[in-house]
Amino acid sequence: MYKDSDMKDRWIVVTGASRGVGREVVRCLVADHGCPVLAVSRASAPLEELKAELKDAPGILEPLVCDISTDAGVGRVVEQVAMRRLAGLLNNAGVLVKRDMGAWASEDAALAFHVNATVPLLLSQALADRLAGDPPGHVVNIGSMGGFQGSAKFPGLAAYSASKAALACLTECLAEEWKDKQVRVNCLAIGAVDTDMLREAFPGYRAPVDAAAMGAYVARFLLEGHGLYNGKVLPVSVSTP
């Protein structure tokens, strides 16, 4: 449970909270750890369903429906957070763009890099002052093994993997920017997880890890990982390399 007296009034922001790993992270934070969570997604109905499911949980789920891929959406998150102190920010929202080599267009690559790398930069930057303090706030970026140097790569995911590599580098940069600000930043490069997004991209493939298991791990890391790590890109995968 979320028992640290210095942290109990500090909120956690989770983007991409309506499905997959993000949804399971929110569920775990609210139900198992008793955290107050601002859950951000473009989809209203799944957030309301999750809020209803967690109505008797020890934590708080506050839904926020907005599109953070726009400047207005980032501003809406900042506006909703207002003067609340934050314990964590999970940059989980992402887009998986898949194209055969030779079929890529500039707008495909721009979308992947914007959602997967630029938006986490802009949102982290906008909320940095709310994360700063003692104990330090923790920004966790959800990366991918596809963007982890030396890992196996897959056809069709050139821009996706490159954008997740950019997110990994961004993590190291933000940790350096904020090393004296009491904000710690880490990236979890996760392997294949059984989510709607993966099944849509690779019909028929069954991932070895389900969203609930990964969500529980990410929730714990968000709450505890900054005590041991800062500026790190950590692979979370049962496969090799």
Descriptive report:
The chain has 7 helices and 9 strands. Helix 3 runs parallel beside helix 4 and helix 4 (106-131) runs parallel beside helix 5 (158-177). The chain is of the alpha/beta class and 241 residues long. The strands form 2 sheets. The protein has a 7-stranded parallel beta sheet with strand order 3-2-1-4-5-6-9, sandwiched between helices. A two-stranded parallel ribbon has the order 7-8. It has one domain: NAD(P)-binding Rossmann-like Domain (Rossmann fold, 3-Layer(aba) Sandwich), CATH 3.40.50.720. The chain is globular and about 50 Å long.
Strand order of the biggest β-sheet: 3-2-1-4-5-6-9
**CATH class division:** Alpha Beta
CATH architecture, please?
A: 3-Layer(aba) Sandwich
**What percent of residues adopt helix (DSSP H or I)?**
40-55%
Number of strands: 9
| Sheet of most strands | 7 strands, parallel
Indicate the low-confidence ranges by residue numbers.
Answer: none
Summarize the structure.
By secondary structure, the protein is α/β, with parallel strands linked by helices. The protein contains seven helices and nine strands.
